[in-house]
Amino acid sequence: MPAQGQTFDPKLLAGLPPENARALLPAWLDGYLDAPDSVRSRFAAELNAALAETSDAALSAMLAALATVGDEYRLYPADPLARLMSRRSMPTLLTGATLEGLPFLRHAAAAGPCLLVCNHLSYADTQVTDLVMFQSGAEDLADAVIAIAGPKVYDTFFRHMAAICLNTLKTVQSTGIGDNEAGLSPREVGRIALGTLRQAGELMTAGRLPLLYAEGTRTRTGRLQPFLRAVTKYCAFRGMRIVPVAISGTDVLFPLLAHGMRPAAVRLAFGEPVEAEAGKAREALEEIWHRIAALLPEPHQPAPGTPAFR
Question: What is the mean pLDDT of residues 266-280?
Answer without folding.
Answer: 94
